[in-house]
Amino acid sequence: YREAWDKDKTQISIPSDTPVMLQSKVNALNISNKHYQKAWDEAKAKSYDLRADAIPIKHAKASRDIASEYKYKETHEKQKGHYIGCRTAQEDPKLSWAARAMALQNDRIYRKAYHDSKAQVHIPVDALSVQAAKECQTLVSDVDYRQYLHQWTCLPDQNDVIHARKAYDLQSDNVYKSDLEWLRGIGWLTEGSVDVVKAKKAQELLNERLYRTRPDEVKFTSITDSPDVVQAKINALQLSDVR
């Protein structure tokens, strides 16, 4: 099908100066990557002259030195361990300021003057504040508030004393429970107690065996010549398949 067309394609001749051919050549030059980079490739093939003191080179070096971590810490590493212009640590203002700040923040040094002077306080014994403190201590002291009586101040056979003893005996928990001391340590069986008897009675009421009487336990004798028994026998004979 395409054989004739394929032969004709190779035999077609178009003049090179036609507008279509000229436009196609221009388009080929515009989209050609090689023609687009031709000037750059020619410039790369030639040697370039770029001086070391050129402004872009200096700017790049300065930016690199600023951004470099080594250059940033080079001065610090050189000065480490050396005191410039200070023979001792006390002459260095920064070290002196740091030591002063540490001393101000130290709690032991802050309280040193107080601890040295707190044992050297002298107060007269008759000072008004000391006397007031003694009186206050006497008022709040439990020892001075309670005065225990070591001897009887009344006769033991007085009526009020006897009445007080009887009242103490009535209010005493030990006397109240003295009649139960003989029961302490003695074992006790629950048989016969109110709760046990009540439980047994409830069990007897709920016992099915005691509530219902089985039919085979009831004594019963039927009369053999009663009308219903005779009629039942006649019905049985009539319905019997054997007869």
From TrEMBL:
Gene Ontology cellular component annotations, sorted alphabetically: Z disc
The UniProt record lists the keyword S-adenosyl-L-methionine: no
Family annotation (Pfam families): Nebulin
GO biological process: cardiac muscle thin filament assembly
UniProt xrefs under SMART domains: NEBU
PANTHER family for the chain: NEBULIN
Name of the protein in its database record: NEBU protein
Organism: Pedionomus torquatus
